[in-house]
Amino acid sequence: MIQTVIFLIFTVLFVAAFVWILLLSAYCIISRIRKKASPKQHFRLKRTAIFSAAVMVLNLGLVTLSQLTASTPRIVDENGNTPEGSIAELKRLELNGRKQWISLRGRDKNAPVLLFLAGGPGGTQMAAVRHELAEMEKHFVIVNWDQPGSGKSYYAEKTKNITVETYIQDGFALTEYLKERFSQKKIYLMGESWGSALGIFLIHKYPGSYHAFIGTGQMVDFAETERMDYAKALEIAQSKGDTALIKRLMANGTPPYYGKDVTWKSAAYLNYLSAYMANNPEIHNPGYNTLRDIGSPEYGMLDKINFFRGIINTYNHVYQQLYTIDMRKDYTKLNVPVYFFLGRHDVNAPVVLAEEYMNVLDAPDKGIVWFEHSGHSPWINETAKFVREVLSCFLEIKMQE
């Protein structure tokens, strides 16, 4: 956080100096035209230019330092000590030729490995999972992956080249790395929102690599989800007399959207629904702590900027590739146990679609776990219950194998 404050101060100083340079330059030009130029004017301009350059160099140095010193905090027990055999790493890997970042955290590096797939596409939840699901580090090695086009992996691939297959290929490559590094034949998989869809893609294509899968905020049919979200937001806005939003939604038209404005048009109703859930008294601990997460030590200054660039740019490019997917038709046979952890009050990923999918799904074991005080993010809304249910599902699978 201190680095962020200093960065902002330097940035403000640079902008102020740059504006002052423009004003002084204009004044010098006018003075020269009027033949009233003086050495003092040139001295002020030169001094301001040197100051501006110095601030810019300091800021670039700060950004570089923050990137080089980014880390994930050590694991500590109840007494503040680091348990022997624990693991807390922030690591860069090359997956299919693309440089990407993961965090690995656990009290026992010999524990089962659980790979968490963040929402998005373009989202990073590396810090959020560490904060919210720290209890699970007692039972698993928790791996958080900044996918291509997100957070620390924003530059892994040019945005225009990222496809759904990119994520599947790199997700499998990461899985193989984890299996080899920790000498495990299979790992556990968990996906949130977009990550819940990516998890289905992975277990469908590579079932032999995973013990089981948990999807939370489960995505099923992307195009239908957008239409339902739009309709729900419009319904709420009409009931509240929110004419500004009604006008904006009507101007955007019914989704799905294509082109360069997907993020902004989708945000009109998605942000509205998020605020609606945050104000629902039935939902506990309702929202993301974005300021806390972006201020976490895993992210350098450039990562903090890319935290938002991924949500805007990568989401815009990738999300419109997902509209043809319907899990109820395309992924009805899975050879891995599948569980959906659903918030009873989720209006972002309509739970009726997840229920329909579960009804037609053929899997070795399957089930829905309901969270009565959750919206789209049970892992944040009801953390304690979420951890208990994860252990219940995954440890039962372990006993059966």
Describe this structure in words.
It is built from 14 helices and eight strands. The protein has 401 residues and is an alpha/beta fold. The chain folds into two domains: 68 residues; 244 residues, Alpha/Beta hydrolase fold, catalytic domain (Rossmann fold, 3-Layer(aba) Sandwich). The chain has an eight-stranded mixed beta sheet with strand order 1-2-4-3-5-6-7-8, with helices on both faces. It is globular, with a radius of gyration of 24 Å. The mean pLDDT is 93.
Q: Care to count the β-strands? A: 8
**CATH architecture identity of the largest domain:** 3-Layer(aba) Sandwich
In the CATH hierarchy, what is the superfamily of the largest domain? Alpha/Beta hydrolase fold, catalytic domain
Q: How far apart are the termini?
A: 45 Å
- Identify the overall geometry: globular
Round the Cα radius of gyration to an integer and report it.
24 Å
- The total number of structural domains is 2
**Biggest sheet descriptor:** 8 strands, mixed
SSE pattern, N- to C-terminal: HHEEEHEHEHEHHHHHHEHEHH
Strand order of the largest sheet: 1-2-4-3-5-6-7-8
Helix content: 40-55%
Strand content: 5-15%
CATH domain class of the largest domain:
Alpha Beta
Would you identify the regions where 5 or more consecutive residues have pLDDT less than 50? none
Average per-residue pLDDT, rounded, comes to 93
> What is the number of helices?
14
Classification by helices and strands: alpha/beta
The CATH topology of the largest domain corresponds to Rossmann fold
